[in-house]
Structure formats: structure tokens, C-alpha cells
Amino acid sequence: MSSLSLKLAQHFLQEEPAGAARRLELQSPEVAVELLKTLPLDAAIKVLKVTHPSFAAELFMHIDDVEATRWLDALNTTDIAAIFRHLDEPCFAQKLALLSLKKQTLCKLLVSYPEYTVGAWIDASTLVLDEKMSVEEVFLRLRKRRYQGSERLFVLNAERKLVGHVSLYDVLRLSPHESIAAIMRMQNEALSGVTELAAALQSPLWKQTDCVAVVNRTGEFIGVLQHHRLRAALTRFQRDNEQTFDTPDLVDAYTRSIASLFELVMPSTGQGAKS
User: Fold this and answer.
1) Span 187-233, pLDDT tens digits
2) What's the pTM?
3) Predicted confidence band at 246 (pLDDT cuts at 50, 70, 90)?
């Protein structure tokens, strides 16, 4: 395989992960695993995150615990749960044990919700605040978590019920010893975790924000749902009938290059590819 073809294939994998994922799904899991293992971890994860969860689950059945741990450390809990719900029981237990105890708990929570409901797609590890916190305590928690989420932070009471939210920008204006209660905006509206995705998309809550709180059957906060995540979940169910690219020549060029890369990784892939 020429250096130019290899570079083109690598560019395809890194710059068009959705298209690369579609090509991978036409191969056997063994071939796909060997290919992903040749990539830098961040590039492999980009492809894995947009691979259909059922096929991604097959990949996890064909990798050892060392490689599985590397992938799981780089994936968020929501993506892990989407994949793990397609594993058989023995494999699920084996791979679940590779996660930290906190991730195991969150993963079990997400898997307990049907895939067509909001609860299966939330970010269950999001940062939340206590209603009695001071600004100083907020910043301590932010630094500890290396927070990179929405500017809206949800506030809970001692029973983990949603009582309001604060803007991170507003928190910055307060002195360290002031309480966040001074700037908290009261809120108790949230989506139920059992709400179906199509119904959730029609919720009036999206008129105010692109990040909504999600609660369980007893009203306890369990996580947040991003609007883009909801759209992606709905799209995933319709994806098989969609085209990834609009330029046939580009598709052909990339496909030839990635096929050559398969041959480089596993010379005998001819009989391994799916027909």
C-alpha cells in the first residue's frame, strides 16, 4: 500500500468518522478491531462514538481487557451504556467490571432505561450544586471536576430534588463567601427519564435552553439531556436510510483507500469481510 493511500485512509478515518464507521460496519468485527487498534486512541474513539452501538458491542466482544479498558476510559458513560445494552450477560458483566465503581453505577442506571427513552441518553455524571453552597465551594468543585459543560448549573436539595439553576457567569460576579442562593433561579420543571425521545423533542423546555434536567419516577435528579444528544439519538434510529456523503467520487476514493488499509492490517481479510 502506498504512503499516499495510507494518508488518505487515515484522513478519512480522522476527518470523516461517521463515514468511516459506515465502512467498518461492512467488515467483520475482527477486521474492524484490528484496524481501530492501529489508530491513535483519540481517532479510534471518534469513529467508535458514531459506530452503531450494536456493532460496537461486537467489537468489545473481540478485544482483550487491556484494549477494552483504554477505550472505556476515553468514552463517556452515556456512550458506554449505549454499547453495553447490546452485550450478552456474561460479556456485560466482564466489561462492566473494567469500569470504576462510580461508572458502573451510572452505567447500570442508563442501561435500565429503554433505548427509546430519555433516560438512556442522559449525562448522568454531570456537575450539580447543593442549594447551601457558597461561591468558594462551587469553584472548588469546578476545579476538582475540570468542568467543561454548559454554563447552566443545576441546584439540588438534600433529597436530590431539583430546586433551581444558576449561571456560571453570574457566579463569577459574586464574592467567595456569598451563597449561590442569592442568584439561584427557581426551577422544578424537568423531563422524566421514561419520556420517549420523539415526545421529548417537542417539550417546551427547549425554548429556554439547550440543556434540560432529567428526573426519575420519584422526582430525583438523575442527569441532564443535551438537545444535540437528543437529536443524535433520534437520528440514529433512521440512519440506515441516510447517505453520509454527497460526492460519489470522494466516497469511491476513500472507500478504495480504506479497503487497502484493511489489506495492510489483515492480508487475509478477503474471507473475513461481510458480503
Assistant:
1) 889 999 999 999 999 999 999 889 999 999 999 999 999 999 999 88
2) 0.72
3) very low
CA distance 243 to 126: 33
146: left (phi over 0), alpha (psi -120 to 50) or beta: left
**Beta strand 152-156 pairing with 185-186:** unpaired
159-165 contact pairs (CB < 8 A, 24+): 159/220, 160/220, 160/221, 161/188, 161/219, 161/220, 161/221, 162/187, 162/188, 162/190, 162/213, 162/215, 162/221, 163/131, 163/187, 163/188, 164/131, 164/188, 165/213
Residue 21 in contact with residue 54, Cβ under 8 Å?
no
- SS3 state at 128: strand
Strand stretches in the chain, DSSP E = 128-130, 152-156, 162-167, 185-186, 191-192, 211-215, 221-226
The model's confidence at residue 247, banded by pLDDT at 50, 70 and 90, is very low
DSSP three-state, residue 148 = coil
Alpha carbon distance, N-terminus to C-terminus of the chain: 23
Question: Locate cell 459506530: which residue?
Answer: 51
8-state DSSP, 220: B
Return the pLDDT at 241: 47
Overall residue count recorded for the chain in this entry? 275
What is residue 32's predicted lDDT score, i.e. its pLDDT?
Answer: 85
Task: Read off φ and ψ for residue 145, nearest 5 degrees.
Answer: -90, -10
Q: In the chain, what's the furthest Cα-to-Cα distance?
A: 67
CA distance 183 to 166: 7
Q: What's the pLDDT at 126? A: 85
